[in-house]
Amino acid sequence: MNTSDDEWKLKLNPEQYKVLRQCGTEPPFSGKYVNHKEDGTYVCAGCGNELFTSDTKYDSRSGWPAFWNKVSEESVTIKEDRSLGMKRIEVLCKKCGGHLGHVFEDGPQPTGLRYCINSAALDFKEKNE
After folding, report:
1. Which contiguous run of DSSP H or E holds residue 99?
2. Distances in whole angstroms, Cα of residue 123 to Cα of each of 56, 80, 88, 105, 111
3. Is 116 among the residues known to form the active site?
4. Could you identify which of 8, 26, 44, 70 might form a hypothetical disulfide with 75, taking C-beta atoms 3.0 to 4.6 angstroms apart as the criterion?
């Protein structure tokens, strides 16, 4: 996607822009999807790319929505993040490159992964839609 910064500012609300385009993080336990329990698919708030399903969502008690797997290889990409004096693995939307959160190796089986994702980076599509 070749969307300009000005176009992103028009498309996204300020919180979404801060997270998706400036690699921001919402405060823990503040996002609308932390305790969300409906059946469906979580998509990128920037481009609508399918990212995670409710079947892989779990309560990690971290303060952000957590998933143990992505929808497909076309959902997300990862890269090393050495910001804030830490070494982490950043999760990005594979379609628009938006910052989603980070992935850690302390999740449940079968993957052992915890995709720790900002609610502001997500929209939700109910299973019946």
Report:
1. strand 99-104
2. 16, 25, 24, 25, 24
3. yes
4. 70
Q: What is the pLDDT of residues 79-112, one digit of tens each?
A: 998 887 888 999 999 999 999 999 999 999 999 9
Which residue intervals of the chain are DSSP H helices? Answer: 5-11, 14-22
Q: Note down pLDDT in tens along the chain; length 129 residues.
A: 689 999 999 999 999 999 999 999 999 999 999 999 999 999 999 999 999 999 999 999 999 999 999 999 999 999 998 887 888 999 999 999 999 999 999 999 999 999 999 999 999 999 876
Helix (H, G, I), strand (E, B) or coil at 16: helix
Whether this prediction's pTM lies above 0.85 is answered by yes
Are 91 and 19 within 8 A, CB to CB?
no
Cα separation, 8 vs 10, whole angstroms: 5
Q: How far apart are the first and last CA of the chain?
A: 25
Catalytic one among 44, 93, 96, 116? 116
